[in-house]
Structure formats: structure tokens, C-alpha cells
Amino acid sequence: MTHEIINNKRYNTQDNYLKARFGCKIAKISLNGGFTCPNRDGTKGYGGCIYCSESGSGDFAGDPRDSIRRQFESVKAGMDKKWKNAKYMPYFQAGTNTYAPLSELKPKFEAALELPDVIGLSIATRPDCIEDDVFEYLSEISKRTYLTVELGLQSVHDKTGELINRCCTYGEFLHCFNRLSDRGINTCVHLINGLPGEDKSMMMESVERVAALRPHSVKLHMLHVIRGTVCEKMYLDGKFRCFDLDEYVDLICDQLEVLPWETVIQRITGDGARDTLVAPLWSVKKFDVINGVDREMNRRDTFQGAKFNG
């Protein structure tokens, strides 16, 4: 595919991709289905991943005590003021959103799909938490709407997975990814840069191995140190350091260069709740990161996929 500069972006952004596909702005609305995780409830472990807050990565999702419709409408009201004539993608974000029987999952997903101006559905989950009947249900959804299943991989290195209490191996990720791909289901892979014990070569290896899979989309996060987590104690004890802004921008540009152009880049930085974020504090200025990547890609005169070896 020919590289293009669209809205000053030298990479295939989610915003540009969805506008081209649907002809308008598509906004994601984070929802909380009230799901937990197997490494929180004792099935695989306790406490969750070392960086995960009590909300289970749902700091910006809704209140699980509210109905799916009420959560959706609450967020949509604010977005309607920002974007005129937008359409929406409900995003089940908090916890592990396939970690329940199909009889519990289906009513929540169908409720989201029935909401007005909805063009699809995004479901965040773990690779070890999709049962056979759920695979078939997801396949059926993908045939009638735009579905993306988001898999939290974080790193291809199992020793990192053990350190962060992931309780899920790279092999389990590959098995799930292939089962989704075999069914034609769009898959978004999450990776976290800056995990304890990882150097740049390890982070690049994670991206390169994911790139070889040619996923539909990728999210590139930085590690956020959140108050009250195991990660915070490790950070304060000097067990690892966080990126500075220039280091992170340089790494993201290197990673974009090895990802195939057709892979949609859903994000290149993450959001940490300001009131609980310990480090890196510069990350709250998300546009400083995004603009820094744009400048560096322009300076290099490079594009996403420039060094992809697929």
C-alpha cells in the first residue's frame, strides 16, 4: 500500500482510517460491563497486573451500576458538543470483557449494538478468556457490524509476563490471535513500552513479532505508574525508571517504522488519571507526545512501515 500523509500523519491513525471507512468522525465510548479478571479473582492469580489500578484499566469507563444505555448516553452527551454528526463505537474497556458466560455477555453486547448512531463494537479482553461458544458469537457479530477484539499482550517476553503478574503466556496469545484471525475477526494488539526489566531491544522485538502477524490494529502504550499499585512501590524503590519524553518519541517512531502500513494505529500514548498518576508526569500532555512523533517522523522523512520486513 502507498504511504500517504493525511492530516500531517505519517502513520495509519485510527481517526483517519475510520473517517475513510465510515465517512464521518467515529468516537469511542468507554463502557464498564462489571467484569473482573482471572488474575484478580484467584483463578490464575491475585491482585491483577502490577500496573493495573483498582478499576481494572477502566479509569475512564462508566459506572457498572448503570445500564449500558445510561453509561453510553452520559458520555455521548459531552461528545455531541465536541463533534457534530459523529457516530459512535461502544468500547467495553474495564476488566476482561469476555470473562463471563455467553448468557451474560450477549445481552450487554447486544444492548450496546442497539444504541443510536453506533457503527460497531470494540471489546477488550485477555487471550486466555474466550470460550468456544464466545468465539462463535464474536464471529457472528463480525459478520453484521464492525467488530474489533482488543487483546492485551503487553510484551512477547514471558519473563516480563511473570514479573508483571500477567498470568498469560505469549503462546496463549498466539493461539487466541490465530483463532480470531481464522474467523476473520479484526484484532487489536496492546503493547506496553517501559515495563520493568525491558530494554529497547526487547520492546522492539515485541513490535517486530506483532508486525509479522499483520494485525488489524495496534495500541502502543507507555507504562504509567499509578498510585497504590505494586508498580508504584517498584518505581519508588528504584527498580526501574520511566522514559523521558524525547526517549519515548524516538522509540515510538522506531516502532512505527517496522509496523506494516495497513495496520491501524489506535494509539501511540496512553491516558493516566491525573489524580493518581505518579510517573511519567509529562504523559498527561498527550498532544506533546503526538506532536513530538509527528515532528520526528517529518524530520526523518519516514513513514509507518518504512522498515517492515514482511
Helix and strand run: HEHEHEHEHHEHEEHHEEH
- Name the shape in a single word: globular
Question: Whole-number radius of gyration?
Answer: 19 Å
User: How many helices?
Assistant: 10
Keywords:
310 residues; seven-stranded parallel beta sheet; 10 helices; 37% helix
Characterize this entry briefly:
By secondary structure, the protein is an alpha/beta fold.
Walkthrough of the structure:
The protein is an alpha/beta fold and 310 residues long. 37% of the residues lie in helices and 16% in strands. The chain is built from 10 helices and 9 strands. The protein has a 7-stranded parallel β-sheet, sandwiched between helices. The protein has a two-stranded antiparallel sheet with strand order 7-9. α7 packs parallel to α9 and α9 packs across α10. The longest helix has 15 residues. It is globular, with a radius of gyration of 19 Å.
Strands, helices and their partners?
Layout: H1 14-22, E1 26-31, H2 68-82, E2 87-92, H3 102-113, E3 120-125, H4 132-144, E4 146-154, H5 158-163, H6 170-182, E5 186-193, H7 200-211, E6 217-222, E7 225-226, H8 230-236, H9 245-258, E8 264-267, E9 277-279, H10 286-300
Parallel strand pairs: 1-2, 2-3, 3-4, 4-5, 5-6, 6-8
Antiparallel strand pairs: 7-9
Helix pairs in contact: 7-9, 9-10
